[in-house]
Amino acid sequence: MSIPFPDAHRAWTVLTLGVAAQTSGTVFVSVPAFLIPLLHAKRGLSLAQAGLLAATPTIGMVLTLIAWGALADRIGERWVIASGLALVALASVGAVLATDYIALGFFFLLGGMSAASANAASGRVVVGWFPKDRRGLAMGIRQTCQPLGVTIAAVTVPTLASVGGIGAALIVPLVLTGVLAVACAISIRDPPRPAKVPGMPTANPYRSSGFLWRIHAVSLLLVFPQFTLSIFGLVWLVTQLHWPALAAGLLVGTAQFVGAIGRIAVGVLSDRVGSRVRPLRWVAISASAVMLVLAALGEPRWGAAAIVLAIAMTVTVADNGIAFTSVAEMAGPFWAGRALGAQNTGQFLA
Description:
Layout (H helix, E strand, L loop, with lengths): L4 H30 L1 H6 L5 H29 L1 H21 L3 H29 L2 H11 L2 H25 L1 H17 L17 H4 L2 H29 L5 H29 L3 H20 L7 H12 L4 H12 L4 H14 L1
Helix pairs in contact: 1-3, 1-4, 1-5, 1-7, 1-8, 3-4, 3-5, 3-15, 4-5, 4-8, 5-6, 5-15, 6-11, 6-14, 10-11, 10-13, 10-14, 10-15, 11-13, 12-13, 14-15
């Protein structure tokens, strides 16, 4: 079933802006991590201090994801995304002007709290505009935001920081979030939703069924291998398999790219089979199997382990899109924001 052309055009416009909005927020959240070498080697911070500073945007996101989702459930997605990005831009300005690390950490925290708006609301608006038989595809595309944002930060931040310091590194997220705040305010339209009966509370999907709790739990478990491989995969290749750093980086980068495409492919598969749960189950089983194989081949003498690592890095991220789609569909139009916020919060806490 396809939606009429005007709505189809609007759906793809909203998806494009939603992806761009969340990507820009991810760029801001990722900036401090790529500033660690500068902060440690040239600014005199210990690794622990630099790491704590780098973690502040993520801490901010965890604190506000559910709150932004609840606000989107109440007033709609358009102004939640636009106002959140505007606040990220203001936080970027504050970070550029900060004169000490306490102030810098405060603005990083504030920016992370604000960037959570796009995470909580962009998925909600995408699900609202796409019909069920294309939501898997749409949400798979939407879930490429994180690797895309991290890639932009990885490419721009080290170079800009080496030339112009912390302020120069923050120019990219400042410009992106500022421009997209205006674009989202102008072009995003909240999807239609069923009329709400005055005085009648909407049903809490967490009380009527255990389905959402199970999806949250499965997603939480699947995050562990995903984050483990993304954080330690490069180190393992270099220190245990004695790969050159460049070759190891190329392998990890390629696996991340293929993993992003895999999220879209699994989303399309869920549209074709008419189920989110079955492909999610297949991904979970495949991830378990490939991690067991990786553990068995983990000795340094086994060069094949590198190939299995690349496969594992691809498979373990494939569930993200369909898990979020399943959560939004089950939660319904009046609870999707909070449910998606809870889904994101659980993954960040893991």
